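Note to self: keep these together.
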Amino acid sequence: MKKGILVILAVAAVIVAAVIGGGTAYVHTLQNSGTFLAKTKVNGVDVSGKTPEEAAELFTSRFLDRQVAVTEDGKEVLRLSLSQLGYAVDDEAVTKSLAGFMVSEKIDFDTVMSGLTHGNQFQLAVPCKSDEETFNKEVRVDALSAPRKENVNAKLLYHKEENICKIEPEVQGTELRDEDLQAWLKGEIDAVLQEEAQAAAQSGENTQSGSADSTDSAAAAASTAELPVSAQEKTAVDVKEVSMSDGETPPENASDSGTETAPAANTAEILQEQEEQKENGDIVRTIPASLYIPPEKKADDEKLVKKCKLLNEFRNVTITYLFGSEKKELKFAEYMDWLRIKDGKVSVKEDKVRKYVRKLAEKYETRYLDRVFTTSYGGQVTFPATLNEYGYTILEDQEAAQLTQDILNKESVEREPVYQTLGAWGDPLFLKRNGTDDLAGTYVEVCISSQHLWYYIDGSLFIESDVVTGDATLGQDTQTGVFPLAFKESPSTLRGGTGKNKYVTKVQYWMPFYEGQGLHDAWWKTVFGGSEYMGNGSHGCVNLPPDVAAAIYNNIVPGTAIIIYN
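Structure:
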């Protein structure tokens, strides 16, 4: 009985020994296979059965194909791969790190068995570098698919309904500088890659897996594959110390192992983020508002705000020009662009004022311009500018100065323009006007061919009469043209001529209008009108019957237009 039991136990022992031996042989085969164990993942990618070189090729390809997308206003405006952006992978370092991962999962029987049962997870930070020239060539403002919108500066706008200036806020455009776009995107990409590298390194510390950031650790892991556990642990400590020899300093409270364990929750967040990144590896970034070139002038610009305030101090100031019963108003809406504000002081742009005064003169000046006159017979007579001495001339320099002062006074005024009112001898140049009509219905009209005179006052015929004008046979013609009545005198003595033609004549009513010629009573004449002026005419004056002369004299004022035509 005992012998049978011993036989059974012996057989069992042989079987167990065979199983153990076979398992050990299998594990030893896996340890020397040169490929990753089943269920091994690096960065979430299954590398089971792949050599480090094959896995490195996979990771390099995946990394360089990774897309970088730039969005703007909810739309994608640029998409490029890391390869297109000039990024390159250190294949040798990746292969070395992967080799280190592979060695670390085959250190001993237990490690292999654990890996086969539960799988291994490693985090690889892919070491890379970028070519600045290639990056800057691909990342340019004109490479963005959306057209750029120009900035609109804040500005002052006049609101007609309210008669007030307000600041129209600026509008931010989408203009960018190449160098700003490049620096921003490069920083964003590098930040993502750096975060991933840090996460991989941190995860590696927590899981005792390797990291591509330290090729020395991979080499060390490979060299300790056949060492006892105690030797492996010692080597791991040495590796950590070496990895800090580039200038890193371990935390003051670091343990003897040289590692620091991150909080589990933080690690979980990192891993989750990495998993999401693996599923959709795009690096998507939206152009930040801070990157756009700002408008040069904003609504809160101190100078703009002050200018608005100063301008509105003029908004109720109106300069009203009087042209008889017609008025022309110069309002704030028209002249606000003339105002210049500098250092808080307001001035008026001289060129703008002069341009306005010039236009005013072009419309309302009447003296020394061609004049078309409708006669009492209904026909029209045109007087050239040289024969039109009656009317209004705006003194532009003085008017510009007065207008400037009126505006700066900030008080509304009503006035006539600054006219030249007197001639060379102190006689008035005009009487009155109604808009552009400088006769306004009051004038003396003389037709030489019909030897007749009409005197109109305010559009109504006051008196008319036959007359005698200058003797045409003696070359003493009465001057045609339009002239202002210089003055009137009663009585008066007329003197003229030379030699035997010299004369001295006393008249009761003298009303001169042109170089010694005038209207006066001819008490010595009994015949007026007809052809009397041919051979028995005046020396150039317009002779009137005494009663007509008296009526005109007593109802006429200097400056009245005297209009004479053939």
